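for the record, two folds in this file. i put them one after another cuz i was lazy. first one right below, seq on top, C-alpha cells after. the second one comes after a little note so u can tell where it starts
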Amino acid sequence: MSMLEIASEVQGADPLATVTARQLTEDLRVAMRDVQETIGVLACRVRAAHNARVWSALGYSGWAEYTKQEFGISRAHAYRLLHFARAAAALTAGVAAAGVWSPDENPIGSRILDFGLSGRALGEVEEQADALATTITKQLQEAHQKGQVDYATVEAIVQGVVREARRPSAPRPVTPAPSLLSDDAPGVERAPLLADHLSTIAEQLGSAILEVAPAYLSDLQAAEIVEATFGPRIGTDTALAARRYAITQDQRALTGTFR
C-alpha cells in the first residue's frame, strides 16, 4: 500500500492507529534523511503525515512537538516543510489542470513534483501558489497549442513562473562581508553575524548548484555534474552540502563543511 493510500484510508479516523502513525512517521523519516529523494517525495509524505494528524496517535500535542521529538527539527523548520509541501502540491495541481501532461509521466515517479525548485523557493511562493498554478495552467495550454509538451517544457515553465514571482520589486540591502569581520565588536558578538553570513553563502551556492544539478538527482550524479561544471574551483563536498541545504533548509546539512 502506498503512502498516500495509507493516508487517505486513515484521514478522519479517530483515533488513528498507532501502527499506522508509526509507519507514516518512518516513511517521512526516510524522506527527510535520504538526499536522493526529491522535494516532491518529501512533500507527499509531509502532507500525508500532517493530514493524518500522526502526532495525536503518538501522544504529541501538535505538529511542532511531533517533528521536534521525532526528527530533531525546530518549530520554524517544521512549518517550512508544510509551506513548501503545500506549494509543491498546488504547482503540481496547476500542471495537471492544463490537461496536457500527467505527473505520472515524470521520471521520478512521485505524485507531487518539485520541478527542480529548492525548498526555499517553494516556501517563498506558498502564499501565491494558487495564483501561480493558474498562470502555469495557462502557459502550458499555450505551449501545447504550439507542439507536444514534455517534462522539460513543464519544468521550464514552472521554474520561470516561480522565478518571476520571487523577483524582488526593489534591490535588497546587503551587508558587505568585510563589515562582519570588523574589529569594532568583540568576536563573541560577531559570531552570530558570521554564522548568518555563512548560511546565506551556503544557500546562494546551493541554489546555483541546483540550476545544473536538480533536486531529483542523487548525490553521486550531482557530484559528477559539479566536478564537470566547476572543476577544482568548488570543492565537491562543500558544493553537495550547500545543495542539500538549499533543498532541505536544514542547517545540519552544513555540518563539517561551512560549519
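(here's the note) second protein begins now
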Amino acid sequence: MKKILSLESPVTKWLTLFTNLVLLNTLFLLTSLPIVSIGAALTALATGCQRILRGNNEHIIQHYFKDFKENAQQSTYLWGFIVALTTLLIVDFLFFLRQGMVVRYIACLGLAMLCIVILLLLSVGFSYIGRYQDSFRQVLRNSLLLAMGNPLWMWCILGFAIIVAYGSVSSPERLLTSIYVNTFGGCAVIAFVNAYFVKQLFDKIEKR
C-alpha cells in the first residue's frame, strides 16, 4: 500500500497529472470568458502542459497567471490574426462554392493550404510564444518553419487537430458532447496531447 501511494508510484503520478489537467482546464475556461483574452489563455494552457511534460508539476496556478500576463499582448495579436485568417477562409469558401468546377478545384487547393497554416499556428504558435522571446513576425515565421521542417510531427499535429475538430463539430450531438467534455477537462487533455507533439519540435532545435 505504501508503494502504491508513494510519490514515485505510477498511481500517484497519474493522479497528479489528472489533478493538474483539471486545474489547468478550469483556469483556461475562467480566463477565456472575456473572449478577447482567449489568446493569452491558450498560451498559458499550452505552456502549462509543456511544463508538466518536462517534469515541473509545482505551482501550477502561479505559473499559469504569470504566463498569461507576460504573453498577453503577443498572444492576443496571434489570436486576432488567426480569427482574421479563419474569417477569410470561410468567406472565400462560400464565394468559390458558387463558381465553376475548375475554379472551385483550384480554389480548394489554396484554401486547404490556408487551413493548414491556421491549424499549425493554433497548435504551435501559442506554445512558441510561451517558450521563446521573439517578435510577432518571428513567431509566425518560426512556428510554421519549425513544423514544416519536421514533416512527421507536423502531420501528427495536423492529424490530431483535424480529428478533434471533426469529432467536435461534425454533428449537433458531437458538438454538445464536446462542450460537456471540454468543460470538465477536455480542453486541457487536448492541449496536453498537442503539447507532446510540439515538444518534439522544440526538443529538436534545443538539442542542437
